[in-house]
Write a structure and sequence with these properties.
CATH topology of the largest domain: Rossmann fold
Low-confidence stretches: none
Mean pLDDT: 94
Order of helices and strands: EHEEHHEEHHEHEHEHEHEHEHEHEHHH
CATH class of the largest domain: Alpha Beta
CATH architecture of the largest domain: 3-Layer(aba) Sandwich
CATH superfamily of the largest domain: Glycogen Phosphorylase B
Number of strands: 13
Largest sheet: 7 strands, parallel
Number of helices: 15
Strand order of the largest sheet: 3-2-1-4-5-6-7
Shape: globular
Helix content: 40-55%
Structural class: alpha/beta
Oligomer: single chain
Number of domains: 2
Strand content: 15-25%
Length: 382
């Protein structure tokens, strides 16, 4: 097969753009190229790919076509996808085009596969930027009707596709995201101690990683943390992630609770991918109280590193965390505080969760995702 992948959201900028969807696309491409088959790939990227690190897509089965358009700008990328991508897909002689982020060209001359990560803009329209919501609402349904096959990254997302957009379940295949099990793993104790010392992280700390936006439910986390800190004393809350949208309430709650003295809550900003394993290894517990996740990769990475995980008991998070973490009602400050208190004080519980995490994460290797994605490609060509 000759497969094209629209990789214009794959960023090589070393900032927040390289997280999330960019990371998914890069890891999937790497895993596909590691598969022992004769599939050939054309990777359509933005101009940043010219500055890609050595080794990116260095495979005889992959060709990178870097656009001259400045597609890091969303409006430029959208225009490129709808006007140029259909043309270059034909010129490349593709058997199939994979659009890994919900939208495809509305006039596409080759069969397509679309990956859907979540439908936040439909589930929580009031918590989503208006222009982005309007764009996705307008193009998502049309794109999905035209796609030959659809990949959902979780069973929860598959349910949403059927419930919110009326997509027939038989057209949707669930292919979970993967985690790099060679990188996200328990680290040597000496390295952890050195990292904590270098970053001034105390013995007890709570870690959150993710975009600062409403659905991540950080005000509830802050209130639960304030209750635990009042009881247990010096426990640091580390909040990592770039600013998304509608994040002012987060900082207002920090001030309201008197946590703005610099000793209680520390905002890390965007955490580079290379540093993530050590941050996971250096914390005492990872907490992810998000109200809605299409998958929940940070929770999976934390599990792989052997960090006890507390997560919300809804959307896709129970699929990812399973029995290896504590699942709580994300709207209950008391429930979240109780779970934090339990992990921080119950040594037996923390030990059990640290052992269970890597075992759960082992169910999500990127090799599995690549193998199952290839099966979807083959089905779409029939």
């Amino acid at each position: 097969m000759h497969i094209g992948i629209n990789a214009h959201l794959l960023a090589f900028t070393g900032d927040y753009r390289a997280a999330g969807l960019s990371k998914h696309i890069g890891d999937l491409i790497t895993a596909l190229l590691d598969q022992p088959d004769d599939t050939h790939y054309t990777l359509f990227t933005g101009p940043g790919a010219r500055n890609a690190p050595p080794g990116f897509a260095q495979s005889p089965r992959a060709q990178v076509q870097a656009s001259r358009w400045p597609t890091l700008q969303p409006e430029v990328r959208i225009a490129w996808e709808q006007t140029v991508l259909p043309v270059v897909a034909v010129r490349a002689g593709l058997d199939l085009l994979h659009c890994p982020v919900l939208v495809q060209p509305l006039l596409c001359p080759v069969p397509t596969v679309i990956t859907v990560h979540d439908l936040i803009f439909l589930r929580y329209p009031d918590r989503f930027p208006r222009l982005k919501r309007l764009y996705l609402t307008a193009l998502a349904g049309a794109s999905l009707r035209r796609a030959r096959r659809i990949i959902a990254v979780s069973t929860a997302t598959k349910r949403d596709l059927t419930a919110l957009l009326g997509i027939a379940p038989g057209r949707i295949t669930v292919v979970p995201n993967g985690v790099d099990l060679a990188r996200f793993t328990p680290q040597p104790p000496a390295a952890v101690v050195a990292f904590r010392r270098a970053h001034d992280v105390p013995e007890r700390s709570i870690l959150y990683l993710g975009t600062l936006e409403p659905r991540k439910n950080l005000p509830t986390l802050l209130r639960a943390y304030a209750a635990v800190r009042a009881e247990l004393g010096d426990v640091l809350l580390l909040i990592g992630g770039g600013k998304g949208w509608f994040y002012d309430e987060i900082f207002r709650v920090v001030r309201e609770l008197g946590l703005d003295d610099g000793r209680a809550v520390r905002f890390l900003g965007y955490v580079p991918d290379a540093d993530l394993p050590m941050w996971y290894n250096s914390a005492t517990v990872f907490v992810y109280p998000s109200e809605y996740e299409g998958f929940g990769l940070p929770a999976l990475e934390a599990l792989a590193c052997g960090l006890p995980v507390i997560a919300a008991d809804r959307s896709a998070l129970p699929e990812v965390v399973g029995d290896a973490g504590l699942l709580v009602d994300p709207h209950s400050v008391a429930a979240l505080a109780a779970a934090l208190r339990a992990v921080l004080t119950d040594t037996a519980l923390a030990t059990r969760l640290r052992a269970a995490g890597p075992q759960q994460a082992a169910h999500f290797p990127w090799t599995r995702a690549a193998h199952e994605t290839l099966a979807v490609y083959r089905a779409a060509r029939r």
